[in-house]
Write a structure and sequence with these properties.
The chain is an alpha+beta fold and about 290 residues long. It folds into two domains: about 200 residues, no CATH class; about 60 residues, no CATH class. It contains ten helices and eleven strands. Strands 1-5-6-9-10-11 form a six-stranded antiparallel sheet, with no helix packed on it. Strands 2-3-4-7-8 form a five-stranded mixed sheet. Strand 10 and strand 11 form a beta hairpin. About 30% of the residues are buried.
Length: about 290
C-alpha cells in the first residue's frame, strides 16, 4: 500500500481555490474547529457552478450554519465560529492510499490498482449528524484525490482540474464502514468491510425512494401527525394568538383547516428556534 506523496493540506488548498474560481465563497475550518464541526470547508456556491455536475447533485437552496445543527454532537461550535452567510456545500477532504496487489482486500472487486481512504469514526459521527440536520438544504461530501503523485497534483492544480480528478461520497453512505474504495474520479465506489457498491444519491433518486416508501396522507393529517410526534404546543381557537384567529376568520375556514393553520404556526415557531428548515414534499408532483 502506498500513501499519496502529498499532504492533505496540499490537496485541500488548491481544491478550495478551484471552488473560488467557480464564484464560490469558501469558509475553511481551522484544525481546532474542524474537530468540532467535522468539515474542512463550508462553501456558498452559485446554482450553476460546475461542481454540482461532478457531484451529480442538484444545487440545494443553502442555509445558515447554526450551532443547533450539531445539537446531537458532544460539542457544538460557537456562532461566531461559523460562516455568516448561506452555505450549500460542505467538504471533508481526504488523502488517498493506493493499493496495487492482489492481496488488497478489495482487489477481488476491482481487479486492478485502486484507491481508498479510512473513515475516522469520531469525524464520521459528526458528519452524519450534520448531514442529517442539513437535510436537503446543503450537500455534505467527503472529497478525495483520484491520484497519488505530487507531480500530478501540481499538474492538475495548474490546469484547475483538482476537483475534476477527485472522488466524492456522502457520509450517510458510509455508516458502519471502515474504508471507502474507488478507482477513478466520480461518485461510485465500494465501502469496506461489507464491500457493497455506494452511489451518491441525486434529488431524483431520493424522490423515487420517497415515492416507494412514503405513506400517503393529506396535508391536514401530515401537519397534525407531525405536531403530535414532536410534542409541540397544540393551539386551539381559545389559545391561539388573537392575530392568528383574525387571520383565519375572514376566510371561513372549517375546524380542520383552522387546526392546520395553528399547527403550521407552532411547527414553524419550533423549527425557527432550532435553526432548522422544514419542507412538505408533494409526491404527486412529477418533477420535484
Amino acid at each position: 500500500m502506498a500513501v499519496s506523496d502529498f499532504e492533505e493540506k496540499q490537496y485541500e488548498t488548491p481544491a478550495n481555490i478551484e471552488l473560488g474560481l467557480q464564484h464560490a465563497a469558501v469558509f475553511p475550518a481551522g484544525q481546532v474547529l474542524e474537530a468540532i464541526v467535522g468539515y474542512d470547508a463550508a462553501v456558498h456556491l452559485p446554482q450553476n457552478a460546475p461542481i454540482w455536475q461532478l457531484l451529480r447533485a442538484n444545487a440545494p437552496l443553502g442555509l445558515h450554519l447554526v450551532p443547533n445543527l450539531w445539537q446531537r454532537a458532544r460539542v457544538q461550535p460557537k456562532p461566531a465560529e461559523l460562516p455568516s452567510t448561506y452555505v450549500s456545500l460542505v467538504f471533508q477532504y481526504k488523502r488517498p492510499h493506493r493499493l496495487t496487489t492482489s492481496k488488497a482486500t478489495q482487489w477481488i472487486h476491482w481487479h486492478r490498482p485502486y484507491y481508498r481512504f479510512p473513515i475516522l469514526q469520531h469525524q464520521q459521527d459528526i458528519l452524519e449528524i450534520l448531514e442529517s440536520a442539513l437535510a436537503s438544504r446543503a450537500v455534505v461530501r467527503y472529497a478525495c484525490a483520484a491520484f497519488w503523485r505530487y507531480k500530478l497534483l501540481q499538474n492538475y492544480q495548474q490546469s484547475h482540474q483538482i476537483l475534476e480528478q477527485s472522488a466524492f461520497v456522502s457520509p450517510s453512505a458510509l455508516v458502519g464502514h471502515r474504508f471507502w474504495t474507488y478507482d477513478a474520479p466520480g461518485t461510485t465506489g465500494y465501502a469496506n468491510p461489507v464491500g457493497r457498491e455506494v452511489r451518491t444519491d441525486t434529488m431524483t433518486s431520493l424522490w423515487d425512494q420517497a415515492k416507494a416508501t412514503g405513506r400517503k396522507e393529506n396535508l391536514f393529517e401530515h401537519l397534525r401527525g407531525l405536531a403530535d410526534g414532536l410534542s409541540v404546543l397544540v393551539l386551539t381557537d381559545n389559545t391561539a394568538p388573537p392575530w392568528l384567529n383574525a387571520f383565519g376568520a375572514p376566510k371561513g375556514l372549517n375546524a380542520n383547516q383552522r387546526q392546520a393553520v395553528f399547527d403550521v404556526y407552532s411547527l414553524c415557531d419550533n423549527f425557527g428556534r432550532a435553526g432548522v428548515s422544514w419542507f412538505v414534499a408533494d409526491l404527486e408532483t412529477p418533477n420535484p
